[in-house]
Amino acid sequence: DQIYIYKKVTLNQLFLSQSWIPNIIRKRVCTTFVEDSLSNGALCQCGGMRETHGSNATGDYFGAAIVSQWDSSQHSSEYPTDAFGELEFAGAGRRQSHFLRLSCDTPPQIVYSLMTAHWGVPSPNLVVSVVGSGGCEKVKPWVREVLRQGLVKAAQSTGAWIVAGGLREGVGRCVGEAVRDHAAAASCLSQKKVIAVGVAPWGLVHNREQLVNTQGSFPARYYVQNASRDSCCLDNNYQAFLLVDDGSVGRRGGETAFRSMMEDYISHQHSGSIEIPVLCMLISGEAAMLKRVDLSLRKATPWLVLNGSGPAADLICELLDALSAVPMSCTSPPPEGEGSESPSAELRERTRERVKRHFPAEADREKLVDRVRALSIYQNRDLITVFHGEQDSPDDFDTVLLKALVRASKRVSSDASEYTEELKLAVAWNRVDIANSELFNGDIQWRYEDLEDSMTDALINNKPQFVRLFNENGLNILDYLTYQRLEGLYRSLSNSSLAYTLLQRHLTERQSLARSLPTAVFTLTLSVFMYCLSPLSQQVNKLLLGDCLYREQGCVHPWASLFIWAVLQNRSEMAVYFWEMAGESVLSALAGCKILRELSKLESETAAKLSLKELAQKFENLANEVFSECYQSSESRSFNLLIRQSLVWGEATCLEMATAADARLFFSHDGLQSLLSQIWWGDMERSTEVWKLILTFFLPPLIYTNLISFRLVATCLSISNPLNTDSLDGVDATMFSLTDMMDEDAEEYAAVRVNLKGAPSSNPKRPFVLLRWREFWFAPVTAFLGNVLMYFLFLSLFAYVLLLDFKPPPPHGPSTLEFVLYFWVFTLVCEEFRQVGRIRMKLYIQDMWNKCDITAISLFALGMCCRMFPWSYEFGRAVMAVDYMVFTLRLIHIFAIHKQLGPKIIIVEKMMKDVFFFLFFLAVWLMAYGVANQALLYSYDPRPGWIFRRVFYRPYLHIFGHIPIHEMDGGIECTNNVTLIEAGAEPCTSTYANWLVVILLVIFLLVTNILLVNLLIAMFSYTFSKVQEHSDTHWKFQRYNLIAEYHSRPCLAPPFIILSHLHLFIKRHIRRIPSVKIKHFVLDIRGRQASRLNTWEAIQKENILSAQNKREREKDSERLKRTSVKSDIAPSLTLVHLFMSSTKCQIHLTALSQSNLIKPTRPPPTLRGKVAYRYVIYMK
């Protein structure tokens, strides 16, 4: 009935209070004194002394007289536990461990939930229960090495629990030392994966009274004595201790039954899609250990036996060898509960001989032979795996572990494939090396159905190496990734992830749109980040609404879908692999960069934000590297790659995606800048001097001379045949002609050609005069030059009107030139409206210079309206003056194209932010000093204007040295009459606190002139040094924006641009001719041409990846080479040193023998053989 009230305890009680533990967990206390005949009545058979038993236990003489054997279940009772909490080992200097005293009959589900939910121990992917010798039996050195190099390494890589005795004796101590050595050598991340759990009998623990506390110990101080020798003290290298109490004291084996139940319970829990495997590991062992093995084998728990480690392990290994040599006989009936097979008489005799050899001191050998027979080894031999430690390497231990568990899985699950279960375990442990060497070595023919579930587990649990392995060994991604599976992948997102939050936020809107629009999964994520890149941008909504017919269909672009799914979760390695597999490498990398940078703006945690930015930069670098390889391979194809529309990414181009992703490093590439320069100059040679353009601009007939060089028309490809990719290795084709792209008449011609039947396939030849005229005037550089010259003329006209021709209000004004100025500004307004119509208003507002244009035009309109009325004439003139400054500042944007001025403009923009911070600090000091100075000098002054000037304006002038000493000393004409002061007279200054005013002035000048000004200089220096390094990159990005702007502009500059606007209005709204330039820098290729371009790009990407892999291999081989050279040089140096030492000794002996100091009784020793020869060579 007391199982105890576990289900009645709520989850909140579990975490908020720890008083529930004694109500659920029990201990056992001996309640019947059964006298031990060997102790003369001083001890009970439980091991406790008579004094420790209560009066009820020692008073039942009649019951004790008829009891001959003490039994825990009959002679002990359960009471609330009095030992639990945290354990601190005195002097150990490590983190605290958890401990719990519990009854041997405690349900294992309670203990497992306590450990995982309350203690915070991570759920295991594997449990290895190490059993073996206890007490003072010495563990062999190779067994220690197996534990250290094999078991702990396997536990770390699989996330396993190691369950051992937990005491500082025998195998338990060796396990603790192995965990300790691993923790000292491994990183903090790997330390958390090795969990050592000690299961020991409570009555055997030394100093257990230090753990007793009915309220729990947080922590309990535990002192370990004689740590250098084996003892029954708790080992401080374990993370948790389960102290099993069966009521006995000083007896071993009381924890065996509970430990077996715990192992069986954990084996039925799940970790992912598979049950948690449990493996028992036998090291040595006494005769009583055979019962422990039998108990676990009956519950189908697999065993790994270390052959040669000790008596019990060696006996089982020899019996397994005998089973393979001796035939089975069914003459004798098997014992109850066993199978039909039984050992033959010959096998029984051999078993008796082996038991006698391994356990010579055992009294009842026949009983032990029957126990060995009862082990059912002949029935459960497939549950036992033998590890030959002296022959096998400890590095192979994890492979042996895996195979042992697979054998057990195959025995339990008869319909499951052996290799499929082994693969699931390898995926759960993330051991791709084992899977690669054992399962995918070419001996097994994997079917698609065998890899599906493991592929899903690898994707969800972020194991990219397995994803790569499955894809290389028979998994077809086109068949695997259906929309239903992709839905499952998105459902596996963590509730705390940013992507999950964004999807939930847009769920309602998507559901409302899903009823009328079709779907494609991967485009949802891009639309979340305000840049919808898919032509099927709304199709994903059906995925969120319920059952749909298309769910069983394969995803159209599987690798791109998986790439976005991985990028959303910031899974770097997996995203890079999916990028490698997806097509259109440059555009895909830029798309990943775009998504990650948008996510980083929404992420609030600093570490996650930094990780997103780093991965975004990584993808930008990948895009830059692939494009570099493409540009080196073929210039023309790399240009086509930049402006090619992508069906996968919503007909976006690389230039559009790079602009959206703010990929400044990508824009700084020489190949992209070469394309921009070619677009900028049109059909003119890029080496044309600027003065020639200006001269031709004012003298148009010079176009038809040789003053300006134009590219040959024959080398330009027509827009109808933009790409020649018949051969991937052929000679580069010249870049397509930009005349047709920029020619408005070409748009009209193309539109008409589509509608007319029988139209020719290419543009008709134009006369030379008209062709050369278009080649000059329709180039973006000519449009830019015209706008610059006309803008200077506009500013000159504005200045002349403002200074010399600003007439009074009507009817006397405005003047004719002022009306011309109004018309000029009107054409500027028309151009701004055209730009807004070309792009979305939201994108238009984001540009800083567009904001400047709106401000200038708004101020001009306000000034123009105000100057028309006499009462607001002066205000209108002032507004016009301010507006002239705004129009003049607009010149900065025009000169951003300059190679020297452009980077400096960027530096000035960055420094403006520093100025704002400086002004903030300056304003604080100005107000502090200004108010104090005004209050000390003037006791009363009711004039608000003068107060404002003295509080802010005068302290500001103090910074530049303008200090009115005469006002502080009171040497001016003034009055103290309040009436006169209110009438406007100058109030007298107070001389009472002149000394304080001077002190405040000194402090103010010290702070502002020295501290703040030098702070501003330091900020400027830091900004300059920081931005100067990357200013060229920023300038090239701004250059693209400027080129794109003037490429889309009409060729005429204001005010003549009105003619181009009228022309466009007639074509767009009257003749209904669509615009091609609304999407500038766009090349639409389909079919075979697109396929060949994608293949060529994929080849360049493979070259990059191959070069990277080669560099990595060279690094590894060079490291190994250096190591081998050092190992070869060391013995050589030793030999040289020894030879030189012996040679020097021989020289000294020869010198002494020839002197008179020593009279030798015999000749000195001589060198023989090779040594003599080397000595002669050395002397020479």
TrEMBL record:
Coiled-coil boundaries: none
GO molecular function: calcium-activated cation channel activity; ligand-gated calcium channel activity
Organism encoding this protein: Oncorhynchus tshawytscha (Chinook salmon)
Presence of keyword Ion transport: yes
Transmembrane region(s): 776-803, 815-833, 854-872, 916-940, 995-1017
Residues spanning the signal sequence: none
Keyword annotations from UniProtKB, A to Z: Ion channel, Ion transport, Membrane, Transmembrane, Transmembrane helix, Transport
Residues covered by region (Disordered): 328-355
Pfam family, one: LSDAT_euk
InterPro entries xrefs: Ion_trans_dom, TRPM, TRPM-like, TRPM_SLOG
Boundaries of every Ion transport domain copy: 792-1031
Protein name: Transient receptor potential cation channel, subfamily M, member 4a
Subcellular location(s) of the protein: Membrane
PANTHER family: TRANSIENT RECEPTOR POTENTIAL CATION CHANNEL SUBFAMILY M MEMBER 4, TRANSIENT RECEPTOR POTENTIAL CATION CHANNEL, SUBFAMILY M, MEMBER 6
Membrane topology, record value: Multi-pass membrane protein
Domain TRPM SLOG: 98-317
Residue span, TRPM-like domain: 438-669
A GO CC term attached to the entry: plasma membrane
